[in-house]
Amino acid sequence: MMNLQELAAYVCTHLERNGIRVVLSGGACVSVYTENRYPSFDLDFIENMPTTPVKLKKVMGEIGFTAQQRYFKHPDTGFFVEFPPGPITVGDEPAGAPNRLSFKTGTLLLLSPTDCVKDRLAGFYHWNDLQCLEQAVIVAEKQAVDIHELERWSEKEGKREQFLSIRGKLVQQR
After folding, report:
1. In 3D, which of 63, 75, 71, 91 has the Cα closest to residue 28?
2. CB-based burial label for 54 (10 Å; 0-12, 13-18, 19+)
3. Which carries the bigger pLDDT value, residue 172 or residue 146?
4. Which residues contact 85 (CB under 8 A, 6 or more apart)?
5. Does the global pTM surpass 0.70?
6. First CA to last CA across the chain, in angstroms?
7. Using CA atoms, how far apart are residues 47 and 20, in angstroms rounded to an integer?
8. DSSP code of 98?
9. Do the Cβ atoms of 43 and 8 come closer than 8 Å?
10. CATH of 4-111, one of 3.30.930.10, 3.30.460.40, 3.40.50.620, 3.40.630.10
11. Are 110 and 73 in contact (CB under 8 A)?
12. What is the tens place of the pLDDT at every residue in 28-48?
């Protein structure tokens, strides 16, 4: 059985081979960057270029996934695969270039660590989701993030004061 990272790379690679380019985001991205310190059971892939639901269903079916309402499920795994609508954004601006990680099952495109933190901070800033803040902090603990870019982005989101109050939690304590 594949772990989250291996499954994500497998799905990402299969989709790319079929002309569907996706980028992993959300909690699964946090899980990858924190070595599963934050477990996630759904893989949120944002399409870079939209495809038809019929093509997506066909391509996912080729690797054993079946559509079940808004997500795809495979009988051999407890993970769900979802395709939230694009474009790939963090807050109100486009995400930067995706990170590329290689696994024995393929290549995974995912938000960069800095964009992953922005994605989580957006949930904290706009919905006061403390779990999102906790996820942003653990990604920043495990990965190199650009604190100046996080500050610039937070200011653009109208959340400078909130950022300044949590900045110390995002600076790596290595």
Report:
1. 71
2. exposed
3. 146
4. 46, 47, 50
5. yes
6. 33
7. 7
8. P
9. yes
10. 3.30.460.40
11. no
12. 999 999 999 999 999 999 998
Determine contact, residues 102/32, Cβ cutoff 8 Å: no
Amino acid at 109: L
Triad 33, 39, 40: Cα angle to 5°: 95
Q: How many residues are listed for the chain in this entry?
A: 174
Domains of the chain by residue range: 4-111, 114-170
CA dihedral for 89, 153, 9, 37, sign (positive or negative): negative
Give the integer Cα–Cα distance in Å for 89 and 82: 16
Question: 76-96, pLDDT tens digit by residue?
Answer: 999 999 999 889 999 999 999
